[in-house]
Each structure stands twice: as C-alpha cells, then as structure tokens.
C-alpha cells in the first residue's frame, strides 16, 4: 500500500472536518428554520363550542322530526391518529351519503354548513389519499359540508389565490356561511378538530408534523383556514397576483389584520396535521415585492378584481369540480 504523505493526510482531515461542519450547519439552520411557537395562544378548551359560528346554508332542509346534532362529544374527543398510521392507500372506501361532494348528517339537524375549498393541480396520488381520508374524517363530525375541488387545468404557473377566489365565489353562490380553505397535502389527525368557523378567522393547521408540530409564526394562516363568508368578502378574498409558491397566505393574513380581525386557533392537541410528501414547488421570487405593493395599494386586488378565467362546474360523487383555465 502506498504511504500517504503528511500533506495528503492533512488534506484528508480538512475535507472530513469541512464535511462535518457543513452537515452540522445544515442541521443547525434546519432547527431554527422550523423553530416556532409550541404553546401558542388558543381558544379556551372548555368553551370551544360557544366560540363557534353556528349557521347553516339556506338550501339545507331541516327536519322537525330530527333533533339538533350534538358537538360537545366531538370537541372533547381525545381520539387521534398518529401520522405514521395514516393509510397510504384506500382500497375499500364507501361513498355512502355523498352526492357531488356534499354530505348531510342522517340522524340529526346540523348546526354548521361548511364549504371546503381545495386548490389543486397535478397531485393525483395525494388526491387519492386526501378524498377518502377527509370524507371519513368529516362524516363523523355531524356537519353539513360540500367539498369544492378547484383545479387549474392549464399549463400556466399555479395561481392559488385565483383558484381560492373562484372556489369561494362558487361556495358564496351556494350561500355557504363558512369557508374552509384547505391544502390537499394536509390531513387532520385529531377527531376533535371540528371543521367549523369561529367568530374570528380560525387557523386549523397550527401543528403540522413537517414543522415538528410547532406553529412556525403567529400570523401564519396557510394550510387550513376557516373563515366566515362575510369576512372573506370584507377582506376582498385573496390577491390574484401571486404565481407559484408562497406569499399569498401571508398577504391574506395581512388583510385580516388590516380589517382588525384576530386569528384564533384550537389547542394544539386538536390541531395536529400530517403533511403528505411532495417535491417543494418553485418559490415565487417576486413574492416579497408583491406583498409590499399590495400593502401600499390596500388590498384593492382580490375577489373584486378576479381576472376573466374560464370556469366550468362538474359533479363527481366525492367533490364538486370547479375547473379553471387562467
Ligand atoms: C412562509 C411563506 C408562506 C408559507 C409558509 C409555510 C412567504 C412570503 C415571504 C416571506 N411566505 O415563508 O407562503 O405558507 O412559509 O410554508 O414565502
């Protein structure tokens, strides 16, 4: 074996030290990037029901013969699924009770009507898990809900703000009093995480496994947000100007604050989610500039200035498809 010179040895040592330093630095940065608020302020656990916005859509037929649905047991439920227990495949899913993505509880009159709006494109494998998982989860909640899948069906850059505005417009037409804006890659783990609006906008996904179950920052509204329809209108919905990943939710959060609306949350043991794995989308390099400009213009751009887009509605058993071409 050839003998290494002292110079080569020192060089080898340097390379190894350098590699370890880089790895350490990466772990260090990762820790601080995902560092957040563990015990964030939340609605008091014992009075959650009193804080919720009990309102149903006018189209919902209530039956005198049926009692009002009860929510106290759901809200007090400690039943949860661990993130590793979430099925990766649903082979035997039953769509019982679902029509066009709409569900109405059978044995009681619900006190909540909720439109669940999902902006979507090209994530079939996630959708295959999301739809059965969410319907199984939501059908246990005694709420009237409808799932709107808003799909961008063109090759242009993904525009989540426009899609959410279009979805909200469809839900507002159906006179839903409460909108839940939900990412397709997030699955709720706690049975007590009732999909309902509160008096103030409610951020549901406060505790995601991807962020080590801590809230990254207190004004975050991205992921899953429940907002009263009139508040969504009051803030003029989402900005239509964000293309690609990032910023539209922080801009929306600014709109809420600008309207003196607080962001409320449930306790963390009711707010856990698992994020389905996917490649990180390309970040929008212009997002900070757009946010600055929007603030100067005072949210003039939004639902009221929705660009002309081609929209078509189609019924599917598990969702109402809102197809959008920008
Ligand atoms: C933030 C993004 C959000 C995203 C969260 C969580 C921006 C704006 C420039 C600071 N905000 O950094 O859009 O939901 O991370 O991933 O990029």
Features of the shown structure:
326 residues; alpha/beta; Spore Coat Polysaccharide Biosynthesis Protein SpsA, Chain A; eight-stranded mixed sheet; three-stranded mixed sheet; 7 helices; binds 2-(butanoylamino)-2-deoxy-beta-D-glucopyranose
For the record, the count of structural domains works out to: 2
CATH class of the largest domain: Alpha Beta
Principal-axis shape equals globular
Q: What's the total number of strands?
A: 11
Q: Gap between N and C termini, in Å?
A: 66 Å
**How many H/I helices?**
7
- Main sheet record: 8 strands, mixed
Average of pLDDT:
93
CATH topology label of the largest domain: Spore Coat Polysaccharide Biosynthesis Protein SpsA, Chain A
Question: Can you describe this structure?
Answer:
The strands form 2 sheets. Strands 1, 2, 3, 4, 6, 8, 10 and 11 form an 8-stranded mixed beta sheet that branches. Strands 5-9-7 form a 3-stranded mixed beta sheet. Helices cover 28% and strands 16% of the residues. With 326 residues, the chain is of the alpha/beta class. The mean pLDDT is 93. 2-(butanoylamino)-2-deoxy-beta-D-glucopyranose (BGN) is lined by residues 216, 222, 246-247, 249-250, 287-288.
């Amino acid at each position: 074996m050839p003998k290494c010179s002292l110079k080569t040895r020192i060089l080898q040592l340097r390379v190894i030290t350098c590699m370890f330093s880089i790895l350490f630095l990466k772990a260090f940065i990762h820790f601080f990037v995902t560092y957040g608020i563990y015990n964030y302020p939340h609605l008091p656990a014992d009075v959650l029901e009193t804080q919720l916005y009990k309102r149903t859509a006018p189209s919902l037929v209530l039956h005198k013969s049926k009692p009002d649905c009860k929510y106290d047991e759901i809200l007090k439920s400690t039943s949860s699924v661990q993130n590793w227990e979430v099925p990766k495949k649903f082979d035997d899913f039953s769509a019982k009770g679902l029509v066009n993505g709409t569900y109405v509880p059978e044995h009681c009159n619900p006190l909540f009507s909720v439109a669940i709006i999902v902006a979507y494109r090209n994530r079939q494998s996630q959708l295959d898990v999301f739809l059965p998982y969410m319907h199984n989860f939501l059908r246990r909640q005694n709420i009237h809900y409808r799932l709107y899948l808003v799909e961008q069906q063109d090759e242009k850059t993904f525009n989540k703000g426009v899609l959410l505005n279009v979805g909200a417009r469809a839900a507002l037409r159906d006179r839903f009093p409460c909108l839940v804006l939900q990412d397709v890659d997030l699955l709720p783990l706690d049975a007590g995480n009732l999909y309902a609006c509160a008096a103030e906008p409610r951020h549901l996904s406060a505790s995601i496994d991807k962020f080590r179950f801590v809230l990254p920052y207190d004004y975050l509204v991205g992921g899953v947000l429940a907002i009263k329809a009139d508040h969504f209108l009051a803030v003029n919905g989402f900005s239509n100007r964000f293309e690609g990943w990032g910023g539209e939710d922080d801009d929306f959060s600014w709109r809420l604050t600008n309207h003196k609306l607080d962001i409320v949350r449930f306790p963390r043991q009711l707010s856990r989610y698992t994020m389905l794995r996917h490649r990180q989308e390309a970040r929008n390099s212009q997002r900070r500039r757009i946010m600055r400009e929007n603030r100067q213009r005072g949210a003039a751009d939004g639902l009221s200035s929705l660009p002309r887009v081609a929209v078509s509605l189609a019924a599917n058993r598990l969702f109402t498809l809102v197809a959008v071409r920008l």
